[in-house]
Amino acid sequence: MRLYLCVTVTSRYNAPAPGQEIDAALLYPALARVVSAQPMLKVGISKQDTNEAAFCHVKAINLANHVSFKTLEASCETLDQYNDHIASQQGWHHSQAWLNIEDTPPWRVAVIKPSPTAPRALSNIQDIIFSFHHALLDGTSGKLFHERLLEELNHQLQQRPANTTNTTNTTSSLHFPDAPKLPEAQDQIVDFSNSPLYLAKALWNQLAPARLRGKKPVPWHSKPIDFSIPYVTLTKAVDFQGPVVAKLLKACRLHNTTITGLFHALTAASLCARLPAAKTSSFVATTPISLRPFLGPSADPEFKHSLRVLVTAHEHELPAPLIDHLRTSKSPDQDIWGIAQQVKQDLNTRLASLPRDDVGGLMKYNSDWLGFFHKKHGQPRPASWEVSNIGVFKTASGPGFTVSRMYFTNGAMVTGSPLSLGLASVSGGPLTVALSWQESVVDQALMDGLAGDLARSVTRFNDTGEFGAMG
């Protein structure tokens, strides 16, 4: 239905020495080992446009059909300009439909490097964009993919003879005559249970006539769900360096919250300052939650560290009185920290009750997903934004390639939040807050303003200890 095409996680790989780069001869053997060890990278999807969609066995994979190498033609005078090029490339990957996915597993790897005329500071870096169908993997798996790939690249680098590059006869064909054993679906290994009250409420909200359900306040959601709008995802990154991140983390601990909670609050403050009060009386924000800590005793230990989908989400209501106070407050920092604390408390409460009364436990009751989504056309979006945090990438410490930046984005969510923030960081290094949205659903000026507010407020906090007013 082209409602959500892929998730994308990009890592910046730093070469161990000038002239060493990730070429086909280095990448293909490393990638082959990653793919061979991960069942979800070896399957296609059959009947994807029906309610009988299923994973299917792909007997042969040609890595050349999944991998591309690109040298940017435009000259980049600064790192910021290069990052803008990466953001544009990332959005392009989000917007591409998957083709022939019955025979070709739906994932891509794109190796990007700066223009040959780029400054020396950019000469030893390459970005690898990993894009994948969300039915295969979740965002955390995207990070784990790069951790595995980094290990295999450095292993391959050790096997390469000294002073050798671009060797010929690079093998790109992989053969899997036997169907892989797949990780269990999350509803099979997470002990979801639904109380009668929760189940009754869920069914009532979905099936009862609108006139009987009562009128709920509609949070700001930019534009209603519209399947006719072309599916084009745009992305934009805001980077915060290691010392700034360390200061933010310390402040979050002092205020009993988290980086995730803080960026929910900063987003709320920015949108309050930039959107008319009449259209933004309330917000609803969403946080995805990893279900990896909630695997039941029946989970196969073989797949404990596999790339897969194990995720749910929680919604945070930011009602009109709270938003009014934030908008008119003379002490914005107090309100920002207050919202950040509320998000943390919401998540703690939800984590304590999981996997009871979760939407994941309701999916088995729906036999017509196509019809379920078709009915959403023209309806208000359920949430205002999403903050998804895939955590910290633990880069290599020894000789070889290292990773210095993570850039994680969700594709535009046609039936979900109009905008998304993807958070990812590198241990001891930068935190990248990646914005993504559907073109023409959210104004470019609003997203530029949000990015600017996040950058300025965090910089101000680093300098003065206060975030200050937005806008």
Write the layout of secondary structure elements.
Layout: E1 7-14, H1 24-37, E2 43-46, E3 54-57, E4 60-62, E5 67-71, H2 79-94, E6 107-113, E7 125-132, H3 139-159, E8 173-175, H4 186-189, H5 196-207, H6 210-213, E9 233-240, H7 242-254, H8 259-274, E10 283-290, E11 311-318, H9 320-328, H10 332-353, H11 369-374, E12 385-393, E13 402-410, E14 419-426, E15 431-438, H12 444-464
Parallel strand pairs: 5-6, 10-12, 12-14
Antiparallel strand pairs: 1-7, 1-13, 2-3, 4-8, 6-7, 9-15, 10-11, 14-15
Helix pairs in contact: 1-3, 8-10, 8-12
Description of the molecule:
This protein is an alpha+beta fold and 471 residues long. The chain folds into 2 domains: 6-159, Chloramphenicol Acetyltransferase (2-Layer Sandwich), CATH 3.30.559.10; 217-400 and 413-464, 2-Layer Sandwich (Chloramphenicol Acetyltransferase), CATH 3.30.559. The protein has 12 helices and 15 strands. Helix 8 crosses helix 10. The chain is globular. The model has no long low-confidence stretch (mean pLDDT 93).
Shape: globular
Sequence stretches where pLDDT stays below 50 over 5 or more residues: none
Helix content: 25-40%
Q: How are strands sequenced across the largest beta sheet? A: 9-15-14-12-10-11
- CATH homologous superfamily grouping of the largest domain: Nonribosomal peptide synthetase, condensation domain
- Which structural class is indicated by helix and strand composition? alpha+beta
Count of helical regions: 12
What is the CATH topology of the largest domain? Chloramphenicol Acetyltransferase
> How does CATH name the architecture of the largest domain?
2-Layer Sandwich
Largest sheet: 6 strands, mixed
Strand content: 15-25%
Task: Provide the CATH top-level class of the largest domain.
Answer: Alpha Beta
Distance between the termini: 37 Å
